[in-house]
Structure formats: structure tokens, C-alpha cells
Write a structure and sequence with these properties.
Oligomer: single chain
CATH topology: GMP Synthetase, Chain A, domain 3
Helix content: 25-40%
Shape: globular
Order of helices and strands: HEEHE
Radius of gyration: 12 Å
Number of helices: 2
Strand content: 25-35%
């Protein structure tokens, strides 16, 4: 089962409405995302990435997840 880039972006926008978000990847299984969000302020990189994975609402969980791999970059929006 694959995931559309637009669906991934929608999940991220729901969690981080004021963030700058870029999603790429055409195969729906291996994708990349850059999330630059104010919500990351004061959080280390691991905490930032945990916030993003939580926003995916289980779409990467286990072998039956819709998304297999996500190259993720997070930054604090200034």
C-alpha cells in the first residue's frame, strides 16, 4: 500500500499549520520531507522528529505501513 505525497503533506500540515513543509518522492513508499516549524523551538532533533512521526498517525508503523521510509529534515522556524 503506497501513500501519495499530498496525503503525507496533509498530515504534516494538520500537525504543523504554520510550518514550511516540502515533501518529495514519487513512489509513495520512499519519500522525503522537510519541516520547518515554530513548534520545534527548544526541542532537540530527536524530539522534533518524534513530533513529525507522531503526526503521521501510524502510517509508518510495522511492515504493513503505507510509508516504508522517510528521509526527514527538521528545523526551527525563525
Amino acid at each position: 500500500m503506497a501513500m501519495e505525497a499530498s496525503a503525507l503533506e496533509a498530515l504534516l500540515r494538520d500537525a504543523f499549520p504554520t510550518a514550511d513543509i516540502t515533501v518529495d518522492g514519487a513512489d509513495g513508499v520512499h519519500m522525503g520531507a522537510q519541516v520547518i516549524a515554530e513548534e520545534f523551538k527548544g526541542k532537540n532533533r530527536v524530539a522534533q522528529q518524534r513530533m513529525v512521526y507522531a503526526a503521521l498517525k501510524g502510517k509508518m508503523d510495522g511492515p504493513n505501513g503505507e510509508l516504508h521510509a522517510l528521509a526527514l529534515t527538521t528545523k526551527v522556524k525563525e
